[in-house]
Amino acid sequence: MKKVITLPEKFNFHATATDHGWYLLSPFYHNKDENTLSRVEKLATGKIVLLHIKQDQDTLIIEIGDKKTLTRKESEEVIRKVNWMFRLDEDFSTFYKMCSADQDMQEIVTENRGRLLRSPSIFEDIVKTILTTNTTWSRTMAMTTNFVTLLGDRYSEASELFTFPEPEAVLKKEKSFLNQDVKLGYRSDYIHELAFQLCNDAYDLEELANPEMPTEDVVHKLKEIRGVGPYALSIILMLLGRYDYLPVDSEFKKHVKHKYFAGELPPQSQLQQLYKEWGAFKFLAYWFDR
Q: I need a labelling partner for 106 at 20 to 30 A (CA). Which of 42, 148, 268, 287 fits?
């Protein structure tokens, strides 16, 4: 079974999939040779499908593995999730105009870059962001793989592919399981509590995807989530399509210290002024500058 989405005029599948490291984290799988991004996804009906996504000229092709058939509502859900993952509804025209006026950023326009892959659910993005804090990328990959394979739903009996776990699956295990078996360490408390709050309707993550909600309100709600500090906040805001916050973390400091300050780190207030002229696109300016 195959689904087709018409793409925006400026779109680069490979860049969208790989300019952000999420494509290296389960349950995503990127086939470099075929330039295809795949993942196992559990739909609202409970059906588990394997999605293979690739670009064919001005369309995005979604192939459903094992010739599984989908109902109309299931098809609409798949298309909605893929639209979200690839940010097909976001308008990058203003960002491209700003890039065109900056000699160092003009290739972003010529290469149709700017979109950064995200997960189909905000819960998945928050969990993965928490798994990137105070650790190495290789450790993030290992923790995510453990989380998916030990808590997710298996695609089929003979398969080693799993869905990303839902909050309910997290609550079926003790925090000690997350700590000792999944090896999440102190992050176990944060993720277990987030799952608990979601299952008890204390949080509504989907409202954060509403573009009409002021960024200040989104920030306030994200700060209520334990484990979401300044760095995680900026990353989650980026994943939500809000690029006006900078992740002033070790990577940011390392980059700007050598590129703009001759190896000397200036005061925090001065760091915050970098990329100020990019306004609502500060994060993207930093990301591609780096």
A: 268
